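Predict structure. Input: Phosphate transporter, 413 residues.
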Amino acid sequence: MEHITLLLGIVIVTALVFDFTNGFHDTANAMATTISTGALKPKTAVAMSAVLNLVGAFLSVEVAKTISGGLINEEGIRTEVIFAALVGAILWNLLTWLLGLPSSSSHALFGGLIGAAVMSAGWSSVNGSTVVTKVLLPAIAAPLVAGLAAMLATRLTYRISKKAGEQATSKGYRAGQITSAGLVSLAHGTNDAQKTMGIITLALVTGGVIAPGSNPPLWVIVSAGIAIALGTYLGGWRIIRTMGKGLTDLAPPQGFAAQTSAATVILASSHLGFSLSTTQSCSGAVMGSGLGRKGGVVRWSTATRMFVAWGLTLPAAGLVGAGAEFLTKQGTWGIILTGALLIAGSAVIWTLSRRQPVTVDNVNDVGGEPAGVVTTAIAAVTPPPAGTVAAADELKTTIPGPDATEPARPATV
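Output follows.
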């Protein structure tokens, strides 16, 4: 680390700040369903997730290698490009957190990196085939695969436990939820923590500190793991509310099915080096589990806003990254101005978030969003549970008395 310049040090610190925002932005991926169903208390859930995120950061470096040596061409890329990319990613992360939208921190990072690289060295600096095969295709496939798997798993769990009593299965499913949530947290560490490792490694390559193609140094792995764990422990309560209560109402069997499906998809992608969005995988699994239960519904108004955020993430972060790179190209004053704009923008977003704070105390409160046409229609045709008997008061009928204004009729003899 003795060859690290001031600029490179600023880039490393900024990368760890992004990793921190990634942690509290994506806490919902692992723990939203566990918190919403009451399987774990909120603080306990985020503490467990933070520890497992840290452990997961040490399990693999495949995703980090994809980012540091595959997404863009390292030759001709300046250290300032990495700084500009991180500015775009951090601001988009904070904006979507303010809105409570579970967008992809991964795609924010990729968008910022691509936008800054194109502004610096043109389109030839981006490896299009890597972007398509390891970013875009997984972005489309991951939520679909996770959602389908969660829907089938939910139907299977309800079928298996059909004859068992609710109390007999409740404890088992809650224990399963805790286990599967831990697996998602571990998977999150193996995938998302590595993205920051890859960015820092890329910065070290551009700064001439390490050779191209090198694995992340140990201190990079440790610092990235700690940063994402700290962010996770703080808990992104706004997004936890959306994932746990805003998309659908989950019972413990659904939470177990959703988390198990999402963890399987994330771990498989990490093993293959696919840098997919853990947010999209977990969101798809939550929606799939909502559709998998008979009578279950998805709040499509919330889902639609989430889909729009997904589609805007890459281009929006890319535009901010490109603008930040345009400033950094102007010299020292441009770099200082870019850093000042990052701090000012973050401060404004934080101030706005304090107007309607979401904390550990009100995370499970639903804001009363209308169900929407599809949800209302499905709920209207859903039969009531078997054995439900109307209350006695509902069966009573009142016979109206005679109209007081009508003249009395004489009695008939």
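The chain has one domain: 6-395.
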